[in-house]
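[stage:ingest] chain + small molecule (manganese (II) ion)
[stage:ingest] validated
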Amino acid sequence: MIRFKTLGQFIIEKQAEFPFAKGELSRLLRDIGIAAKVVNREVNKAGLADILGDYGACNIQGEEQKKLDVFADEQFIDALSQGGECCVVASEEHDEYIKINTAVSTNAKYIVCIDPLDGSSNIDVNVSIGTIFSIYRRESIDKPISASDILQKGINQVAAGYIVYGASTMMVYTTGKGVNGFTLDPSIGEFCLSHPQMTINKEGRMYSINEGNYVHFPQGVKNYIKYCQEEDVTTNRPYSSRYIGSMVADIHRNLLKGGIFLYPATAAYPNGKLRLMYECNPLAFIVEQAGGKASNGHARIMEINPTELHQRTPIFIGNKNMVEQLETMLAEET
Ligand code: AHG
Ligand code: MN
Ligand code: MN
Ligand code: MN
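[stage:predict] done
[stage:export] tokens:
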């Protein structure tokens, strides 16, 4: 007897709440779950599966692709192509978006933006990594697919989620009605509901930032880091500093424990390092649905009007009060 509700059972149950939906989004989430289980299997035996190390090519980001970047990319594109509900995949690992031309998909109405493997620098050192996905509805099935179907504001997302391949493997997603977390039970190969209706821990006491870039941070960010480190018992400071280097893992921890994640503009990344379409928007949707906030320092991440598929943005995401304190300090410096 399975004690916990499986992802499939949960989706069917929630499906009943959308009487007019015909199950396409549910099948799309199922397809993503299938690919996640395949990636998880390789992650769990990475050291034995010749899946570590460099793939031997660079992606459009100018990054040295890891074997697992490419493997994960292939698995998610394959599952989405087979599933028949997705008409376009836009992946970190491909310069352009990919039209899915399998017969069933021609009328498919969903677009998936995906970071197949997030935190690649952590793969070879056995530290948590993840996958991030964002789902949009195409503007119209009566007109050919064009860039405007993909370059939509984050507020248009119909669903967003991540998988974190950590001590346990979890899938966390939202369809705009709260956030739910599922833990993979390897003994039955099912994601089971373990974290219903997740909300960000109100007692935010952690800040996550790569302080190695300190000299290049805007003055307001430097002032905020100093604020985090000051002694003040009334506001639970100093906060703890925690930085894993995989955005999904840092955000997942901050969701559960409370905190703020900051990736400001730096010398190497004058527009910020993290990508709007398949890192910042999906995680912003989830954190907002969990009661938090996601900003580029002065505007809501999900209101940014995308112009490029791989465009980057500074991001400050987590507890509302912490993000607003940061925004105040940035505004004071200008
Ligand atoms: P990806 O592995 O998908 O390219 O993303 C890596 C990102 C993100 O996961 C993480 O928060 C950030 O890079 C870490 O950057 P730094 O190493 O510059 O701190
Ligand atoms: Mn990358
Ligand atoms: Mn990433
Ligand atoms: Mn990636």
